[in-house]
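The authors assume throughout that readers already know how a fold can be written as discrete tokens. The format is easy to grasp once an entry is in front of the reader. For illustration, here is how one protein appears when written out as sequence plus structure tokens:
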Amino acid sequence: MAVLVVVALALLAAAAVALLATVEAPRREGERPVRAFRRGLRAWLRPDAELRAEARSLAAVQPVDVSLEQMLRANVEPGGGYLEPGELAGSLHAAAGSRAG
């Protein structure tokens, strides 16, 4: 019996989270959250032709085999990095000094 109560409470909590999520989801003007949830669920279960075509085109994309070096060179960003080596070395030396002393 206790397991049944726990499962029921979990399902109720999941439904509450789903409804709260629809409050943040885009809604039509004046549309209530429950109706927005049902509309979104219907769209997810039965997508229209445009969504299906987009899904098919994304599924048809073939992966490109590149080396790690090529990928890193293609995605390099100019400027300094997040950490500077001198800054990092100074912090490490300070930490080692405080630990030793």
Observations:
- The CA atoms of residues 33 and 85 lie 52 Å apart.
- The chain is about 70% helix and 0% strand.
